[in-house]
């Protein structure tokens, strides 16, 4: 279990959020894009840019404006550091989208992990996507499985549809880098190579030959952009690094336990396929924090203070290394800053040793989340 004083290690913003959440007198009314961070709201249109209106009965009363967009650390600071010196918001089962129409003609009977399509995820600052790939109907599909197989009632869509969304995003945003982490069950020879080629993504491919071995730094982000090597793809099948030139994930990163086993407070340990988290011969750190079976109404609480606590726990377990990838379900749901703040924390620590990436600005004149003034006013008025 975590030591009693562990909570003091959370970023200041989490403490402020808790004070506001328990302040019965803070029920400001605002409309027409005037609601700021944590302001009560009735619709997304009430909230200022970068926020949206969320109801979270498990965390707070009424509906409030919470963060909806990640900080662009590259434009905020610079892109002169190695790739492994940055953190990226990651969606678990990015393809398992609530409301996604059936592509098989059979009603889907499985769970969802996200609320928006991949294009929307990328536009809101997600930069790493976790996808499950299967052989299905003579093609590669994104799918949940039953007894290890993709079925018409667990399939979401052909992988090429999602990959084309990634291609469109990379083409429209020439300075962005996207990472794809595959839980890979494709057995068809060169099946993945074909679908990535057909989606037009090979022109952005970051080659395995340029990936560092033995814990070395990755290339500079600026060089990756200049060379247009802006798509990193990892597979869970070791042999494909040799046969298809797709990086075997655990040759390059460590990863903590996923699902319920990875959500115990004060405990962070590697999943079975990964080497121990403190294995510094792997330059990247992936932190999972999501339930084995997603429960949407609880995601807002799960993605808030508990996520920040686990970030600190996994930092210690990983040999005092901060997570490069922070993977969650329902990524926009939180009590305030959520997964966006967790990534800001990791980026701040990675880039300049600060608890928030905005503190890395040269003049250091930063107000947490741009909304501290509103929070202070709310506390004074409570």
Automatic annotation (TrEMBL):
Signal peptide segment: 1-25
Database matches in InterPro entries: PI-PLC_domain, PLC-like_Pdiesterase_TIM-brl
Any single biological process term in GO: lipid metabolic process
GO MF, one example: phosphoric diester hydrolase activity
Superkingdom assignment: Eukaryota
UniProt keywords, alphabetically: Signal
Transmembrane portions of the chain: none
Protein name: OLC1v1009801C1
Annotated source species: Oldenlandia corymbosa var. corymbosa
């Amino acid at each position: 279990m975590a030591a009693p004083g562990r909570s003091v290690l959370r970023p200041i913003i989490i403490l402020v959020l808790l004070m506001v959440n328990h302040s019965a007198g803070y029920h400001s009314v605002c409309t027409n894009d005037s609601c700021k961070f944590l302001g009560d709201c009735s619709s997304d249109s009430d909230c200022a840019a970068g926020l949206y209106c969320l109801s979270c009965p498990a965390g707070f009363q009424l509906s409030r404006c919470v963060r909806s967009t990640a900080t662009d650390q590259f434009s905020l600071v610079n892109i002169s550091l190695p790739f492994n010196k940055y953190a990226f918001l990651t969606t678990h089962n990015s393809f398992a989208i609530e409301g996604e129409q059936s592509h098989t003609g059979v009603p889907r009977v499985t769970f969802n992990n996200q609320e928006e399509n991949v294009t929307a995820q990328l536009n809101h600052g997600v930069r790493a996507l976790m996808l499950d790939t299967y052989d299905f109907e003579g093609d590669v599909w994104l799918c949940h499985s039953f007894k290890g197989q993709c079925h018409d009632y667990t399939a979401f869509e052909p992988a090429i549809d999602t990959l084309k969304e990634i291609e469109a995003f990379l083409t429209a945003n020439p300075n962005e880098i996207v990472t794809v982490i595959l839980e890979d069950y494709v057995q068809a020879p060169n099946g993945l190579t074909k679908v990535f080629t057909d989606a037009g993504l090979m022109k952005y491919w970051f080659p395995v030959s340029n990936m560092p071995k033995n814990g070395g730094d990755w290339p500079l982000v600026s060089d990756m952009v200049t060379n247009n090597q802006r798509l990193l793809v990892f597979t869970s099948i070791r042999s494909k690094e040799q046969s298809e030139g797709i990086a075997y994930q655990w040759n390059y990163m460590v990863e903590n336990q996923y699902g319920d086993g990875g959500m115990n407070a004060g405990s962070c340990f590697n999943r079975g396929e990964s080497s121990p988290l403190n294995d510094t011969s792997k330059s990247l750190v992936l932190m999972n924090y999501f339930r084995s079976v997603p429960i949407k109404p609880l995601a807002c609480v799960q993605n808030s203070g508990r996520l920040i606590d686990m970030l600190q726990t996994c930092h210690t377990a990983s040999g005092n290394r901060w997570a490069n990838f922070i993977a969650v379900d329902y990524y926009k749901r939180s009590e305030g800053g959520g997964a966006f703040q967790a990534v800001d924390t990791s980026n701040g620590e990675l880039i300049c040793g600060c608890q928030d990436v905005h503190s890395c600005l040269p003049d250091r004149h930063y107000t947490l989340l741009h909304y501290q003034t509103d929070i202070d006013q709310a506390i004074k008025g409570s």
